[in-house]
Specification:
Distance between the termini: 53 Å
Number of strands: 3
Number of domains: 2
Radius of gyration: 21 Å
Structural class: mainly alpha
Strand content: 5-15%
CATH architecture of the largest domain: 2-Layer Sandwich
Order of helices and strands: HEEEHHH
CATH topology of the largest domain: Double Stranded RNA Binding Domain
Shape: elongated
Helix content: 40-55%
CATH class of the largest domain: Alpha Beta
Amino acid sequence: MSEKKSLEYYLSQSYPFNIETLSEEDGGGYLISYPDLPGCFSDGDTTEESIEMGEDARHAWIQTRYEDGLDIPEPFSSYARYSGRITLRAPKTLHRKLIEQAEKEGVSLNQYLLYLLSKELFLKYSFAKKR
């Protein structure tokens, strides 16, 4: 059995976070969340304020879990479930069309699918930022 790490250890760790812009309907500002710390989030009027408020929320989340004797995840532990591999089932006609298009481009089907997904995400997030 491994030795329990101290509260200071967990509080000193750098946990990854995500910041999202909140719509005016949701009150505006920015939402910060920590993928490794379920339910740990906060918000602020600016990105700087959301980070500051997020740090307060992160400290309170960790301290509460520690005092309650519950597990505290290590930083970046939520990323372990992302292997970079996707298995996909597609109709035969779609599969054929994708292979034909990849051949026209002179790339593998895998490279062509990665291109299509990347292009779609880029367009989606580029458009969302312009609104």
